[in-house]
């Protein structure tokens, strides 16, 4: 028999390999692309000066933008290469980066006032366990801001090999599944919104029910409040 597949090590390896490509494109994603609405959305619910964990921070550009908006930020990513690129930015005192695994976060319980985790839960072997870790490090009444890839997101192709019985490091969790998980954990939904490819005209779908909007989405972004 071959060696048992280690999801976590393979995830670290593959994101190390993607670090340079990600670094070349992350500024545009956060400034003009699929992630441009996220920080203004988070800021509606999280006071400036709060301690925010950016879990799955990649090369740290989103963390840097959070800091620019007045937050104290710690960025975490499983990829050593991503963290090295994050640290290579001009790092102010209240912006730190640390390599860490979402399945076992290197923080004490109730360390953060808010958590931002964008397209992170799709890359863990056990999303429910990862959500419990996010909940553990989030303070009571803290805000969890999560972006889940929608059905039209091309990165979901990374889960396709599982149909051949092959190993994959991407889950296929849908936005509505994430919502159900966190609500059953006791989180309160504050709000959510969709991010779409340019072919989808938001004025056309404005009257659609949420499940149809999500079916067309590239990503769905939620804000949840921990009341326990």
Automatic annotation (TrEMBL):
<dbReference type="InterPro" id="IPR029063">
    <property type="entry name" value="SAM-dependent_MTases_sf"/>
</dbReference>
<dbReference type="GO" id="GO:0032259">
    <property type="term" value="P:methylation"/>
</dbReference>
<dbReference type="InterPro" id="IPR013216">
    <property type="entry name" value="Methyltransf_11"/>
</dbReference>
<protein>
    <submittedName>
        <fullName>Ubiquinone/menaquinone biosynthesis C-methylase UbiE</fullName>
    </submittedName>
</protein>
<keyword id="KW-0489">Methyltransferase</keyword>
<dbReference type="Pfam" id="PF08241">
    <property type="entry name" value="Methyltransf_11"/>
</dbReference>
<keyword id="KW-0808">Transferase</keyword>
<keyword id="KW-0830">Ubiquinone</keyword>
<feature type="domain" description="Methyltransferase type 11">
    <location>
        <begin position="54"/>
        <end position="145"/>
    </location>
</feature>
<dbReference type="GO" id="GO:0008757">
    <property type="term" value="F:S-adenosylmethionine-dependent methyltransferase activity"/>
</dbReference>
């Amino acid at each position: 028999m071959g060696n048992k597949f280690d999801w976590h090590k393979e995830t670290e390896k593959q994101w190390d390999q993607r670090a340079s490509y990600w670094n070349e494109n992350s500024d545009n994603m956060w400034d003009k692309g699929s992630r441009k609405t996220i920080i203004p959305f988070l800021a509606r619910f999280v006071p400036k000066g709060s301690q925010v964990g950016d879990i799955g921070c990649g090369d740290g550009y989103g963390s840097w933008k959070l800091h620019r908006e007045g937050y104290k930020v710690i960025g975490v990513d499983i990829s050593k290469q991503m963290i090295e690129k994050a640290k290579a930015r001009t790092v102010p005192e209240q912006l730190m980066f640390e390599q860490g695994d979402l399945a076992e976060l290197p923080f004490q319980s109730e360390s953060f006032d808010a958590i931002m985790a964008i397209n992170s839960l799709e890359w863990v072997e056990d999303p429910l366990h990862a959500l419990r870790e996010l909940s553990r490090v989030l303070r009571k009444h803290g805000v969890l801001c999560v972006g889940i890839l929608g059905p039209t997101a091309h990165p979901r192709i990374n889960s396709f090999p599982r149909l051949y019985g092959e190993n994959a490091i991407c889950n296929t969790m849908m936005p509505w599944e994430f919502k159900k998980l966190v609500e059953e954990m006791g989180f309160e939904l504050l709000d959510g919104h969709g991010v779409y490819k340019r072919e989808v005209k938001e004025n056309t779908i404005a009257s659609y029910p949420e499940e149809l909007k999500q079916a067309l989405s590239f990503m769905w972004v939620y804000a949840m409040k921990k009341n326990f």
